[in-house]
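User: Here's a chain of 241 residues. Predict its fold as tokens.
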Amino acid sequence: MPESNSERGPVWLVLPTYEEATNVERLVAEGRAKLPASAQVLIVDDNSPDGTGEIAARLAAADSAVHCLHRPKKEGLGPAYIAGFREALAGGAGLIVEMDADFSHDPAYLPRLLEASERAHVVIGSRYVPGGGVTDWGAVRRTISRGGSAYARSVLGVDVRDLTGGFKCFRREVLEAIDLGAVRSLGYAFQVEMTYRAIELGFDVVEVPIVFRDRQAGSSKMSRSIVLEAIWRVPMLRFGR
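Assistant: Prediction complete.
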């Protein structure tokens, strides 16, 4: 019989933060409410100048299921997640969930991802499967997002619809099998790289529909350099190693 989630070990929710002081406390509360009682929340803060790290430390001091990893400087989404994944694995995580800290990923979808992880090694909360979608974005941002996923899908030869999606659940064995030290992507190419590496290793990936909404507070982390990194790094994943 396949191992059930209840037998795997606790769920760890990894939240990378940079200048998310307006969001982090409410997100932790709403995330905890949607996760099993045994779940742990790890906030990975890159020395936010707006006090996010101090809020995270206060939450961790008040709740033994909340943890805070303080990093000395902002290095990008990829390194923050890798540090968080290592911490979660060391803490005995059975399932590791990643999501944005700005409420673009609705915590209400967390049970859906956990349920799907019973039948797949990697679960992606997908904007681009039936039932999924995006709200609050203009035409340019929609084009960049859809185009980025289509470009990565074509270059890598995989059929995952939302390769750039960052709302995911990994079984422990996936992150143990991936050489985390070899993951080089800094920005949103990190999402493509992690999914592709999992597929290369033979793990099953499923997509479940979510509706993505634009952040309601704070500023977007999207930049020209992040887009350019994705353009050149995706071919390197397939042909450069």
